[in-house]
Fold this sequence. Notes:
- By secondary structure, the protein is of the alpha/beta class.
- The chain has a domain at 6-85 and 171-262: Rossmann fold.
- 30% of the residues lie in helices and 23% in strands.
- It is built from eight helices and ten strands.
Amino acid sequence: MASPMLELKNIVKVFNADTEDEKRAMDSINLTIEKGEFVTVIGSNGAGKSTLLNIIAGTLQPDEGSVTINNKDVTRIPDYKRASLLARVFQNTTMGTAGEMSIEENLCMAELRGKKRGLKWGVTKNRRSRYREILKTLELGLEDRLTQSVGLLSGGQRQSLTLLMATLIMPEMLLLDEHTAALDPKTAAKVIELTNTVVQENQLTTLMITHNMQQAIHYGNRMIMLHQGKIQLDIKGEEKAKLTVNDVVAKFSHTLKDEALLSN
């Protein structure tokens, strides 16, 4: 049997310990994700979704427990040293790109992520040609704007570029942190479809946090629900494929106190 891509064992994370504001954001979480799985994560505000992603990415370290990525214990390895293993797309459309740099410079920076750049890291003729072909797949006309500053792009264009950059050199695992939440519905639909295409074509192990239950049910082959730092629901395969929003609400209404979770 193939080894899993991600293993979280007995993860505990407490904020403001021993104070009136103590919050147990991760309460003995155990989670195993197999290679190639596309897992969606839902939960109300404060359920622990962002803490989960931050612990996997290395932005936060757990108080207890271990994090293993592709057989490598990374529990105490900081986020910048996990760059060769993980790629992450944030809700904020400006976080994954350098706005003052051009489209081609951003792509080159992504291609050389984790590598020694030296003095000859710039955009070569071959790279420019390859970037133009890759950008055509977005169908946004960006292939004709390679030297334009990324700061001039719309939110949807920038998020599409960020997704492309995150997967230009295929990571071990892709982390999506509500990456369509800041976009208008039409643009969000386009970005989520692009996401699904990239993930499926490359069988890329993916963890996607979303407030949109329709997204969580429709995309991926597994869905987990977090509430009060615990996994309340873990459903996959055919069982997940048959799920409806009403099914989840009816079964777990006592945990769904945040109306944003029920958005369509």
